Amino acid sequence: MTKNILITGGAGYIGSHTVLQLLLGGFKAVVIDNLDNSSEIAIKRVTELAGDFGKNLVFHQLDLRNREALEQLFATSNFDAVIHFAGLKAVGESVEKPLLYYNNNIIGTINLLEVMAVHGCKKLVFSSSATVYGWPKEVPCTEDFPLCATNPYGRTKLFIEEICRDIYLSDSEWKVILLRYFNPVGAHPSGYIGEDPRGIPNNLMPFVQQVAVGRRPSLTVYGNDYSTKDGTGVRDYIHVVDLSDGHIAALRKLFESNIGVAQQLIFLFESNIGCEVYNLGTGKGTSVLEMVSAFEKASGKKIPLVMAGRRPGDAEVVYGSTVKAERELNWKAKYGIDEMCRDQWNWASKNPYGYGSPDSTE
Known about the structure:
The protein has helices at residues 13-24, 40-49, 67-76, 91-96, 98-118, 152-170, 204-212, 240-254, 261-270, 288-299, 323-328, 337-350; strands spanning 4-8, 28-33, 57-61, 81-84, 123-129, 175-181, 183-185, 219-222, 234-235, 237-239, 275-280, 286-287, 305-308, 317-318. The chain is of the alpha/beta class and 362 residues long. The chain has a 7-stranded parallel β-sheet with strand order 3-2-1-4-5-6-11, with helices on both faces. A 3-stranded mixed β-sheet has the order 12-9-14. A two-stranded parallel ribbon has the order 7-10. Helix 3 (67-76) packs parallel to helix 5 (98-118) and helix 10 (288-299) crosses helix 12.
């Protein structure tokens, strides 16, 4: 039987890439998204890229805080599992508008979990973030590190993780996988879908991309006096297609209980899912200047830099251990920074204004 998966926030950057991988993997996908920070064009393009599998994609414009609409969807569909991406994700904005973030991210998630429970759908993959590690005292971060979010956005991720752990403790029928991503970059190799941030980008690569296509004059580098190889901050960048494949691996793990008895005994001995957490990254740190240099090479464009002081709250070096995901999900990142930059530039050069036009950007 083809599994039917609900994807919240499936029109967003990581969501749209994951929906495509799901379709190509033989799943049915029902996407809901309120289109606050995403575009329905992404869904149309995913349908096209999926070819014959595109017929297995259904889209509804829906906000998770609209309990009635969510109830209606679950009443008329039968979902085997949910991948939950939907949420606001700009750190700076979350500091300025904490209530907006708590309302959207946490209330939306509670609605989703309550409706899932009512309808007996208790398999969930949640899009968490390495931001729950705060400013780690050492690297690489492993899944058992102490958790400490340093801004409202990060706290929403941390609170939702805790809610998921509590739900499982109260009802062992739940199977939840929490995926803590590091820094997603790149785009689908076709250049047909990619990241399209509204307004001023919050992350390094969309900013670099906008400088390369002439939308911004230069890239500001915050902090070049860290005790790293070139003085700039070090992060774990992961190709969005690798990240998407990590979600498929997590989903398959949730369905593993449908295997034969002998395998099941081995599986139960190894790991009873319950509520498990996995890092998704490459396990390697790359500095800001290394990333800029790789992008210059991929694009043939010079990226003018402006050096600025450190931003308060920025950690010096953050990268993750991916040993657990490799062992238990049978997943490992395949792409390095050269491929990430190649695919990011392919997307940017074909879509300099993302899914919009020059007039629609801020």
